[in-house]
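Subject line: Sequence and fold of a protein, written as structure tokens
Body of memo: The sequence and its backbone structure tokens, given next.
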Amino acid sequence: MLVGKTETRRGSLISPLLPYTTDANSDLPILTIIFPLSQDHHLITLVQYNVVRAMILNMSILSLLYCLPDKCSRAFGISATDTTSAENISNDLQPTLLQQSTPHPFWISAIPFPTMRDNLILLAGTYDSDDLCYDLGQALYEGFDDVDRRGFVVWGDPWLMSGWEVTEGFVGKWGFLLKGCPDVVEAANRWREVRGEERLVVET
């Protein structure tokens, strides 16, 4: 959803719930996603839906919905004129100096981790942004294909870093993006401790 490029991925366990618009189906109505999802067979992708929904809400706060591809806007029933009332943008979403001075993909701004946003901008071209977006939620278009989460989990207010948990799978694959981000790791560890799990140890 967050990038336009598509590519063939490994086999899926379930059919994708948000199919891409192609020449063959462009005239067909697009499925509208309604939250919260309640059908049992949708629960397997609920974590990813929550992340996508959280990023869309943050884009709304930042007045960035106009950047979304049309197929995403139609699937989620939103328009560029939709905004979320927020008197003050949280400190976690405030643009960094680097963001303000360096062009970057719009979706980076919706991640409530300032130092990680800077890392994403500084390391542009050294990582596969399509693959990263796939792990963060684009997999919804192609079907769930494994049980190893490689993205985030959102437990609370999406505009606050404390509401997000970086997963162990994300650290294993994308840990280099967390350099200088001990606060992101600490936020994840607070959620892990609630569940009685061991703390993540990440070299930041």
Observations:
- The radius of gyration is 17 Å.
